[in-house]
Amino acid sequence: QLQLVESGGGLVQPGGSLRLSCAVSGFSLDRHTIGWFRQAPGKEREAVSLISPRDNTITRIYADSVRGRFTISRDNAQNTVYLQMNSLKPEDTAVYYCAAAPGWVSTWLAMKQEVVGWGQGTQVTVSS
Prior knowledge:
Layout: E1 3-7, E2 10-12, E3 18-25, E4 32-39, E5 46-51, E6 60-62, E7 70-75, E8 80-85, E9 94-102, H1 108-114, E10 117-118, E11 122-126
Parallel strand pairs: 2-11
Antiparallel strand pairs: 1-3, 3-8, 4-5, 4-9, 5-6, 7-8, 9-10, 9-11
């Protein structure tokens, strides 16, 4: 059974850093795109980052709002995808979710349409 479990959220001051983890089971990271999404109170869920499924041609995609501050990475041996978040801003406050889609899904719209599993989310709060 496909399962994704996020962890690593918490309270951090503006300018600080957090690293989120998405531990997966029941499927292979080699064959699935993994995406990070976030949802702030009263707002729609928005895409943050995607990482491709293949080791030798890793492709990463970032939303404009996080490019240069967030880094997505993957450890296939650990069946885990990470989201390193630096220079955090109050507007980054949200519940962060990871999701999986089969194959390489290179657009946000396609990712939302092809998702086969979501994690339960982890809260990130950026506040002084």
